[in-house]
Amino acid sequence: MHELSIIQSILESTLAVVQDRSETCTVDSIDLQVGALAGVELSTLEFLWPAAVGDTPLADTKLQIEQLPGKAVCSDCGKSFNIGFYYDPCPDCGSHFLNITQGEELRIKSITLVSAPSPPPQGGGLPPNLNFDWNEGKPPLPGGRGGGLTAPQRLKNQMVKN
Asked: Per-residue confidence at 128, pLDDT binned at 50, 70, 90?
């Protein structure tokens, strides 16, 4: 069951890409290309994926797999053809001397990243230089609300101070 180690390698590679990014992002999907001759059991890979990524930052990541057919060129007669197994002979001359041209791939074709929204600044969502106490130590108005200057006046004074 080497499919689990394949998933672990995919996780490591994907997390390295995410960590290299300057902005915060999440992984929406990972597209794999798996050749028919790669020796990977796709049903096992798909079955293990949710369990393997469940406690990782990739828990919600979709895995999309494109299976590539096996292709070969006969070394004796030059015929190109599809093969399902390494030991398939050339359909024209019957030779087993083949050059595999496709089907051994196991690669990450693409990783789709989504930029995460930036967290709001601390202090009520205002930029740091605009975070201040609305009352500025003034006595409260009748009824217990605010005090001293109006909100626009305090904002203008604070901007002038910074």
From this structure: very low
Give the list of residues 6+ apart from residue 84 with CB closer than 8 angstroms, or none: 36, 70
Which residue(s) pair with 72 in the sheet? 81, 100
For 147, which DSSP code? B
State the residue range of the domain holding 154.
Answer: 128-161
Q: What is the CATH classification number for the domain harbouring 57? A: 3.30.2320.50
Residue 95's contacts (CB-CB under 8 Å, 6 or more residues apart) are 74, 75, 76, 77, 89
Strand partners, 30: 63, 111
Each residue's pLDDT tens digit, 139-159: 444 444 444 555 555 555 555
The amino acid sitting at 102 is: Q
DSSP 155: H
User: d(Cα 135, Cα 151) in Å, to the nearest integer?
Assistant: 9
64 shares its domain with 87: yes
